[in-house]
Amino acid sequence: MKLWVYLVRRLLLMIPVLIGVVTITFIIAQGVPVSERLLACTRPPKNGFPPEGSPAYNSLLASCGLNQPVPVQYGNYLYHTFTFQWGYTSPNSYLMSDGGPQIHSCGTTCSVATLMQAWLPYTIELALLSLLFVLVFALPLGNYSAVYRNRAVDQGSRVFSFSGFSLPGFILASLLIVGVYFALVPSFTSSNCLGTPYYAIIRNWPSPACFSMFPNQLPPFMNSMGATSPTGFPTVDALIYAVGHPGGVPGQPYFFWSLAADSLLRLILPALTIAYGAAAVILRYVRNSMLEVMNLDFVRTARAKGLPERTVVRHHAGRNSLNVTVTVLGLSFAGFMAGFPVIELVFSLYGVGRLFAYAVFPPVDYQTIFATTVLFTIIIVIANVTVDVIYSYLDPRVRLG
C-alpha cells in the first residue's frame, strides 16, 4: 500500500472518532438549562432573554431550533460544531486576576470560536516547546541508558523516570516557581517590568505597566483579546515587531527585544513541567526498545563486520528502536495535552487550557467547555494520525495491515 493511500485511510478514520465525541457532548448538553443552550446560537438581548413562555421567547427557541425533535437538534449540533459555530461567552469570566488588561472586549458577549482563535496559538507554542524538551531529553537519555546498561547513567535515568511518574505536574510547577523566585528575584529590581524572570513566570504577559504609552496598555501587535499579528503566535510576532522597530521606545532601545525574550522565557518552566512527566514515560520505552533491538541478529552482524560501536548504535539500532517510541509518543499525547489547563492556570499563561479551567468555575461556561473538548479531540486525533504516518514511514510493513 502506498503511503498516500495509508494517509487517506487514517484521515477517514478520524471522522467517526470526532462524531463520537460530538455525540457525547450533545447528550451531555441535553441536561444543560435551555437559557444556557440559547447562547450557543445567539447573543442575548441587552435586557436579557424574554420571560419563559412568552411569544418572543418561543420565537427565540424556534430560531435556534430548540423546539425541534431531538434528532433534528442533533443534526443542527453536528453542523454547528463542524462549522465552528460554537456560540458565545461572557467576557466577565475571563478578566485577569492580577490587575492586567481585560482579555477581550467585543461587546456584551464574545464568540467562543473567536476567543479560541486568539488563544490557541499560545497553547500551540507551549505544546511545541514541551514536545521539543521531551525529544531532547528522552531520546538521548534512553539510548544512553540502553548502551550503558546498569551503569551510572542508567541508574540516574531510572531515578528520573520514577520521579516523573510520581510527581504531579502542579506540584512540580509550584516547586519550580518557588525555586526560581528565590534564585533570581534578588538579582533584579522590582521596577524592571521587562527582562525580569520572576514577572515572566508567575504573572500575565505582557505587563500592563510596561505599555502605559500605548492604548489599552497592550503591545502594538496585540489586540484586546490577546491575539497577536501577523502570524498569531505571540513570541514570533514579538520578534517580528522587534526587528521592524529596532529603536524600541524613548530611553529603552531594546524594549521590544526584551518583550520577545520575556515571551519565550515565560514558556520555559511550563514546558519543562509538562515535558518532565512525558519524558519519564518515553525514556523507559526508548531504553527497552533499544535493548531489544541491540540483541537482534542484524546488530550482531554489524558488530561482526567490525563497524564502530557508535555507528552500530546510531545507524543500525537507533532508527529501528524508534518504532515503539513513536507509537508510545502518540498514545501519551492525550495525557500530554490533559495537563495544559492546570499548568496554564498555575503559570498564568494565556491558552485554551486556561480557558477550559475558567469555564469550569462558576458561573459555568458550557459553550467554552464543549468547544474546548471538541478542539482538544481534534488536536489529539491529528497528532495520532501524524504519529501513524511517521510510524508507517519508519516501518513500511504496517501499511500491509
Shape: globular
Give the strand order, joined by hyphens, for the main sheet.
Answer: 1-2
Q: Could you list the spans in which at least 5 consecutive residues all have pLDDT below 50?
A: 95-105, 187-192, 195-200
Q: Tell me about the biggest sheet? A: 2 strands, antiparallel
The residue-averaged pLDDT reads: 77
Order of helices and strands: HHHHEEHHHHHHHHHHHH
Using DSSP, what is the number of strands?
2
Query: How much of the residues is beta strand, in percent?
Result: under 5%
List the main descriptive attributes of the protein structure presented here.
single chain; 401 residues; mainly alpha; two-stranded antiparallel sheet; 2 strands
Characterization of this structure:
The chain is mainly alpha-helical and 401 residues long. It has 16 helices and two strands. It has helices at 3-29, 34-38, 55-64, 70-82, 112-147, 152-166, 169-184, 197-202, 234-244, 255-294, 297-304, 309-331, 333-338, 340-346, 352-360, 366-394, and strands at residues 88-89, 110-111. A two-stranded antiparallel ribbon has the order 1-2. Helix 11 packs antiparallel against helix 12 (309-331). The protein starts with a helix and ends in a 7-residue tail after the last helix. The relative contact order is 0.13. Residues 95-105, 187-192 and 195-200 have low confidence and may be disordered.
Write the layout of secondary structure elements.
Layout: H1 3-29, H2 34-38, H3 55-64, H4 70-82, E1 88-89, E2 110-111, H5 112-147, H6 152-166, H7 169-184, H8 197-202, H9 234-244, H10 255-294, H11 297-304, H12 309-331, H13 333-338, H14 340-346, H15 352-360, H16 366-394
Antiparallel strand pairs: 1-2
Helix pairs in contact: 1-4, 1-16, 5-6, 5-10, 6-10, 7-10, 9-10, 10-12, 11-12, 12-16, 14-15, 15-16
